[in-house]
Amino acid sequence: MNRTVKAWPAAAALITIAAGIGMAQMDHSQHGGHDAHAGHGAMPTASTGPAEDAFRAVNDAMHADMDIAYSGNADADFIRGMIPHHEGAVAMAQVVLEHGTDAEVQELAQQIIAAQETEIAWMRDWLAKNGF
């Protein structure tokens, strides 16, 4: 439990960053009353490189896997949705370990991997113990 508690600041920072990115994308895509990514003659922006490609692949997989068939059991549905969410955090951290250069970010990524893998194991055990 102590490791999980220590991971909360890291997880909160990641969630805050993700929320900020999401808001920035929403503000940008809704500028002028249209969605710049929906076609309308706009060309998709070129990738900035392998890190972006990896992050986009992780993001796409995570969101697809989070699209669960809901059971009506809030506890189970939460756990079933959080597993791919945590797996996405691990995959994002692995991307930064491969492509990043900042030592502090690398350390955060390693902490996220350790904490999220521990929580994923706990959630899988919970699902099994509770018949899901």
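Second entry:
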Amino acid sequence: MPSGRVKWFSLEKGFGFIASDEGEDVYLAATSLPEGVTSVKPGTKLEFGVADGRRGPQALSVRIIDAPPSLAAAAHVNSDDLAAMIEDTIKILDKVGNGLRHGRHPSAVEAERVGKVLRGIATQLEA
């Protein structure tokens, strides 16, 4: 199975390119990424199948072999700062909970913000 590294990938455009180990550029569509993966960073090592597309070789059935380390994940937040973030998040969740009790669901934008905050705290706790 061919392999290579991601040259670039644009989440907004929904595609990017892989520099294959054989030396050719291979088109990478977002739909070819593994389930649950929406984006890949440059330098990520991939294994993939290849099909001839309209504009050349196209990656199929992509499997991530080795992802470069995340700088954000490597940065640990100070314990006092993390505690303050958790306390602020509890206040936000209380507000959401009270709204739900009165039949008011958060808007899509609010729900997305709360989700990002919770995922960020979870990442810091797991680090």
